[in-house]
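Lay summary. Proteins are chains of building blocks that fold into shapes, and those shapes determine what they do. In this project we predict the shape from the chain. Here is one chain we studied, written as its sequence of building blocks.
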Amino acid sequence: MKRRARPAKTKAILSGRDHEMLESIGFARYLATTQVARLHFEGRKRIAQRRLRAALDLGLVRARLQGDALHKDTVFALSEKGSRLLIDRGVDDALARAARIPEARALPHSLLIRDVLVAFLHAERVHQLELVDFLLEGDLARTDGFAAAHVVPDGLAVLRVDGREVRVALEVDLGHEPLRTLRDKLTRYEAPFTTSLVTDLVFVVTGDRRGLARLIEELGLTGRVLVFRADALPDLIARYTRTPTAPTRRAVRRASPVQPLTITNGSLDEPVGFRGPRRVLERIEARAPSSSPPRVTRRTPSNDVEVREP
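And here is the predicted shape, written in a compact code that computers can read:
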């Protein structure tokens, strides 16, 4: 079920934070209200709802309800107009993608991997870990390494932990796949492990998957394949938290700037330019949490939208 925009009675004004919100939605392709609230509004869902409603009324985003479950979050994606607005303002195409929101039956799986993405982005923002890049399944499906192994993770978090790069492949499991399917999937990860395309494989599960734990032990993958419950994502983040003696993120950048991984010619080799969440992260961090600098209103090329910037 889709939500329709209401005709705007007055011309809406977008703040710099609204602009960042649109970039995050574009990068993730779509996000739910609570996810937007955690990234950009200190978890205040009511404020996120108001700003998303304003963007919807302006035609900058599209919205979908999660079927008949009205108590669940609405899901938002950029519209073509929203994409053009960001591109007109110089935003990279990777952060300005208009996307189709999946049907309601496919949303629980898609939103759970985005919960993991938001958890990593939030941990980076508070300097708990260093997130170099985060790629979703649509990007990873085009890489030679995963294509050759006939397995594509739901997400890949590229981290720098104590000076070394760690690639965490993420699989979301809602309990629908039988163990024989999981066994086949684990077997196919042998090649990505061997080529160092993947350092760790993490399953994020929503129920009791003791059978998966036994299967991991049976295949001799204990330590390389980890299982975390969806309601215990802080435990997942804690595994990759930097130690107190590790250099700070800013010190690492000054000493040896991180070159994040991107897809180049179908492989995850040395990148040419950054197409991951770094811009989102830097813009979030650049905001002063306790001060509101003077704003200047500037009209953008898109009709009926004004943007306030610091």
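What the prediction tells us: The chain is about 40% helix and 20% strand.
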